[in-house]
Specification:
- The chain has 354 residues and is α/β, with parallel strands linked by helices.
- The chain has 14 helices and 12 strands.
- It folds into 2 domains: 104 residues, Alpha-Beta Complex (Aspartate Aminotransferase, domain 1), CATH 3.90.1150.10; 233 residues, Type I PLP-dependent aspartate aminotransferase-like (Major domain) (Aspartate Aminotransferase, domain 2).
- Strand 11 and strand 12 form a beta hairpin.
- Helix 1 runs antiparallel to helix 11 and helix 2 packs parallel to helix 11.
Length: 354
């Protein structure tokens, strides 16, 4: 007797995507060498492609976005100093205090109610340095800003923060895990969005659907230093071309389709808002992430959706998150809406009985 595995509509993250057939073929056929010696031609091609697309000198492949962020903070931040970030940023809240253990710098969170940093808050933090508090060496921003429903930072907003950083002598790093989503949503190139920054990280394994990998990009000397730090963190890889090959396919074939994810996320946000008022403002959803207020849903909403065949997740005790991606199509979206209807109807009937 065989047991059929239940298929879920998985909205927990865009990291759950499976590689495309083209990626699998490229991985199988990849020309490889020892990347520890800089001799893997496929890795070298991926790094050159990433640098060219972002119009910077160089790039280094890392196993994860977290490692790439940590490398940036190690080479841009100075031990014994602070790095300014947003209070809900990934480096501060979702990297298991990696910065504290890896970099020798202290993160200094600033308010980010709308997903962005205010120049006035940066200026205030800079002014505090003359009053017996830790010096500041860098700023890191997150584009798109995940907890704000994947809000994209506009070029103007990044330029303002970069100007403040420059005025105070701070370096600027962009955690651009989903920078391609931001660029597509805003109708600009990623290179334009990150031009004011010293370094930028982006993930291949989120919206671009590669199975693994992220890249840290920036000036040649900074990336050389980051490559050395990658080795210290155990991130050096050997015949990594089998990974890099999928990343090349991702960059060449998976960017334009991000629009589909954004459109489905907006439809999903509207469906959630209609059934659970006050949970989400659909106008805030510009990319592929829907972050909604947990207290506006019936109890155990994550478990109840799972019972209906839909997976989602929480990012804190107040927020439930839904993420669209290349493995979610219109039929899947219809299944999610049907699940929301079933829960909303059940909740209403319970309320009427009571």
């Amino acid at each position: 007797m065989t047991h059929q595995v239940r298929r879920y509509v998985d909205l927990r993250s865009d990291t759950v995507t499976t590689p495309t057939p083209e990626m699998r073929r490229a991985m199988a056929d990849a020309e490889v060498g020892d990347d520890g010696y800089g001799e893997d031609p496929t890795v070298n091609r991926l790094e050159s492609l990433a640098a060219a697309l972002l119009d910077v000198d160089a790039a280094v492949l890392t196993p994860s976005g977290r490692m790439a962020n940590q490398l940036a903070l190690r080479v841009l931040g100075r031990p014994g100093t602070e790095v300014l970030c947003s209070s809900r940023s990934h480096v501060f809240r979702y990297e298991q205090a990696s910065t504290a253990g890896n970099t020798g710098v202290q993160l200094h969170p600033l308010p980010d109610d709308d997903g962005c940093l205010a120049v006035a808050d940066i200026d205030a933090a800079a002014a505090d340095q003359t009053h017996h508090v830790a010096p500041i060496s860098a700023i890191t921003i997150e584009n798109t800003h995940m907890p704000a429903s994947g809000r994209p930072w506009t070029l103007e907003q990044t330029v303002e923060v970069a100007a403040a950083a420059s005025r105070h002598g701070f370096a600027l790093h962009v955690d651009g895990a989903r920078i391609w989503n931001a660029a597509v949503a805003l109708g600009v190139t990623p290179a334009e969005l990150v031009a004011p920054a010293d370094t930028v990280m982006f993930c291949l394994s989120k919206g671009l659907a590669a199975p693994v990998g992220s890249l840290l990009c920036g000036p040649a000397d900074v990336i050389m230093a980051a490559r050395e730090e990658r080795g210290r963190l155990g991130g050096g890889m050997r015949q990594a071309g089998v990974i890099a090959a999928a990343g090349i396919v991702a960059l060449e074939t998976m960017v334009e389709r991000l629009t589909d994810d954004h459109e489905r996320a907006l439809i999903l946000a509207g469906a959630i808002a209609a059934r659970f008022p006050g949970s989400i403002d659909p106008a805030a959803v510009k990319t592929n992430i829907v972050c909604a207020r947990l207290d506006r849903f019936p109890p155990r909403i994550v478990e109840r959706l799972a019972d209906e065949g839909v997976r989602c997740d929480t990012i804190d005790a107040r927020t439930v998150r839904f993420v669209t991606h290349k493995d979610i199509d219109d039929a899947d979206l219809g299944s999610v809406v049907a699940a929301l209807d079933a829960i909303a109807d059940s909740t209403c009937q319970t309320w009427v009985k009571e």
